[in-house]
Design brief:
heterodimer; A: 387 residues; alpha+beta; D-amino Acid Aminotransferase, Chain A, domain 1; Dna Ligase, domain 1; Rossmann fold; four-stranded antiparallel β-sheet; 14 helices; 18 strands; 36% helix; 25% strand; B: 293 residues; alpha/beta; seven-stranded mixed β-sheet; 9 helices; globular
Amino acid sequence: MNVHEYQAKELLRHYGVPVPAGAVAGKPEQVPVLAEKLGGRVVIKAQVHAGGRGKAGGVKLASNPEEALAHARGILGMRLVTPQTGAEGRLVRKVLVEAAVSIQKEFYLAALVDRESARPVIIACREGGMEIEAVAHSAPEKIAREVVDPLAGLQPFQARHVAAALGLEGEAAKAVFPLLTGLYRLLIEKDASQVEINPLVITAAGQLLAADAKINFDDNALFRHPDIARLRDLHEEQPLEVEASKYHLNYIRLHGEIGCMVNGAGLAMATMDVIQHCGGSPANFLDVGGGANAETVEQAFRIILKDKNVRAILINIFGGIVRCDRVASGVAEAARKVRVKLPVVVRLAGTNAEEGRKILDESGLSFLTAASLAEAAHKAVEAVKSL
Amino acid sequence: MSVLVGKQTRVLVQGITGKEGSFHAEQMIAYGTKVVAGVTPGKGGSEHLGVPIFNSVRDAVAKTRANASVIFVPPAFAADAILESIAAGVPLVVCITEGVPVLDMMRVKHALKNSASVLIGPNCPGIITPGECKIGIMPGFIHKKGKAGVVSRSGTLTYETVDQLTRAGIGETSCIGIGGDPIGGLSFLDAVKLFEKDKETKLLVLIGEIGGSKEEEAASYIKQHLKIPVIAFIAGRTAPPGRRMGHAGAIVSGGKGDAASKIAFLKRCGLKVVDTPSEIGEAALKLLKKKGH
């Protein structure tokens, strides 16, 4: 789960990581008062879950409260289009109003759980404000990694390593350990997967500040952090994905023409891949899970059909504990109820696959059946072509 | 021959009285697996499915000499259940539970290092040696004793693979579902090393997916050490970057772990990478023929 910048900064502040003074506003009228309080010179930042806001016009500097109001009017309510939002963009509902700081230098700093070492890792880079992936690619030697022993925790020597990697000296170098301690505690205590400060800045006055922040939380651990779960903003998620999650369907919308309904995440991914391999394009990832029944199949149909790009549907079920005859009855029932008019290719394998196919054949509905995944994908691609 | 489990395996089920645990314990018993104990705290002394129930793994091991454990407890309690089996010295722990927090697994991983236990999972279908022992949730009937070892991060995609190997008349020695989480127990490399020692395994099938670099780690070892042919499939070519594709670990992040780079790496290491899972059976037959099996 992702949170907004203003929420991430509140958490950082709580953990003792210095952030610029600021407050969030949902209405332009609130902004001049906030700007006044913050000293007049402020930055207005659009709050959406996407990077690249600055270049897209979602971050503006104002030298007085009147200018702040004008910027807030322009940003609030705009559809911000960045490389991460897609062409439709994101509606800006909130802005963060922050005291402007004079920046001496920008760095990159992050704490994350590294899957390869199965340990927490601190990542620091002298070059901040840019994509860390780009630096990792072009100049990996500029990136310092400190692997933390989960039992011992973060050590002062590791903060000294990070300070050295960032080229910090004196008071600024000394400030690194308390800052990193806060960052590390936030990662561990709130079950974050990654806490990223990009950029971490050193101000003209020599203070370290988190000028931007991004936190990603482990969805599987939200059950023990109701305070974090409350920060979820459904406006930032794809509406169909939010709806699917209500029915415990794992759905991710893509941009193709063939809607997919599969049991199991790996098989669902493979189904999408095979569609592309056969010259088609998948409209979605959809895992109906281990307990596929008439109701989940019906909801899956409804969600797939709400995507207007979909021109054919491919259902791929490998029956194990789930019996294919039951799934087939569910598919026939749901197709009748939802009145599916698009071509539907069904591939059933595993437990009671034969019985399942018979049910589909005798349903009076025009399903296309296939024996293998490759055959099913071919048929779906052909069906789209012949429309 | 087989890896990790066989006729000698004596299984205890953690969470046997729950809905999932109960259903799958029954299926395992029906397959012929020796299920010798169940553990549900507070229900010790009773019986379920004809299996004695104990309050702790320690008690169950002491009384029944169980040498493997399978876990069907909810995600919030899964790490505790794994650690309990490790502490009781259970040599093989299989965790089926999906949705275990990553930091819990980080701590479990630490505990595993100083133990004699092997963990499979979490978020996995389990392990099976056809005709001998099934520990997990896979449909037993699609498996057949044979020559191919299977190791996979996925569930149903594994069944797809096994189905083809069985239909092609090749069959399987053992099949291990290592699970779809970012931090888990047995890795691809660990599994490859186990199959390497098994004389009956004449071919290995590796089913990977996007995210992480465990497939590459195994491929480097295969290139240097393995004498038997290896077929691989990597799921997720069409997965958009930054999105978790069902499995918690199936995510391309920071420009790493994408399917194209994995496939290229595996090919460079001499693995036969197939474009669709439907080709696995045929590819396996060809490679075995080449080797004279």
